[in-house]
Amino acid sequence: MYKILKKQKWSDTIFSNWIEAPFVAKAAQPGQFIILITSQSGERIPLTIADSNAKEGWVQIVYQVVGASTLELSLMNEGENLYAFVGPLGVPSEIENFGGKVLIIGGGIGIAPIYPVAKKLKELGNYVISIIGARTKDLIIMEDKMKEASNELLIATDDGTYGQKGFVTNIMDDILKKESEAIKDIWAVGPPIMMKMCTRVANEHNKQIWVSLNSIMVDGTGMCGACRVSVGGKTKFACVDGPEFRGNLVNFEEMILRQRQYCDQEREALMLLEE
Ligand code: FES
């Protein structure tokens, strides 16, 4: 069974759970995700792995309450068991020693999945410059862990309550203006609009960028087609071909439209649960 070993509330809507899942912990690599189900009648929730420990057999997930299923998950307590916890799924990040600097960008809840990428890049000897950002100070998560996983850490908040006022893309643009040549690769994970804007900045500087696509997922095995995205003019499945893709090739407009498709149903389900 997949016991909730520890649970923390990081803000009004952001939670982190440490799940007992030794087999997933043993195999997990940066960039991969899991699908969990809270109860027999529950929906599948895909979540990128924020951290794992093979020796201790746990996997850490970070999630924001955005609908009925994530609300249900947030109401579960330490010691309770999840119905299912499947993974690791997806293709691991393409990480190596690039012989220079790498730029890591995490926005909001996207800071969690970017952490293992930064950690591994630093372990392999890259000079890691990380930028993390959120709307406001309270929504900046995992700052200490990101500091450890980076050689330089820069912070941005939209409202200026912490770090530099503005967006992660402002800092990204400044860095690329100064040292575009030195930056060997870039990763950005966050809301689709943020990844789209980061890709725009990368394109302006003729740089390649990785993004992690959190498209709608059902089976997570490439069978249902729910997570399809257009990459380089071809249909790809985020669950088996990704979730990381070269942002330069992603059709973000199509992906954002598809993500909005079920917003009404999601709101209805949430209202029913709250009644
Ligand atoms: Fe079904 Fe990817 S979630 S094909």
Describe the structure.
The chain is α/β, with parallel strands linked by helices. The protein has three domains: 2-89, Beta Barrel (Elongation Factor Tu (Ef-tu), domain 3); 93-207, Nucleotide-binding domain of ferredoxin-NADP reductase (FNR) module (Rossmann fold, 3-Layer(aba) Sandwich); 213-275, no CATH class. Helix content is 30%, strand content 32%. It contains nine helices and 16 strands. It has helices at 22-27, 68-75, 111-123, 143-148, 168-179, 192-204, 238-241, 252-260, 263-274, and strands spanning 2-9, 14-20, 33-37, 45-53, 58-64, 81-82, 84-89, 101-107, 127-134, 152-157, 164-165, 183-189, 210-212, 228-231, 234-237, 244-246. The strands form three sheets. Strands 6-1-2-5-4-3-7 form a seven-stranded antiparallel beta sheet. A hairpin with a 4-residue loop joins strand 1 and strand 2 (14-20). Helix 5 (168-179) runs parallel beside helix 6 (192-204). The radius of gyration is 18 Å and the shape is globular. It starts with a strand and ends with a helix. Residues 217-220, 222-227, 237, 239 line the site of FE2/S2 (inorganic) cluster.
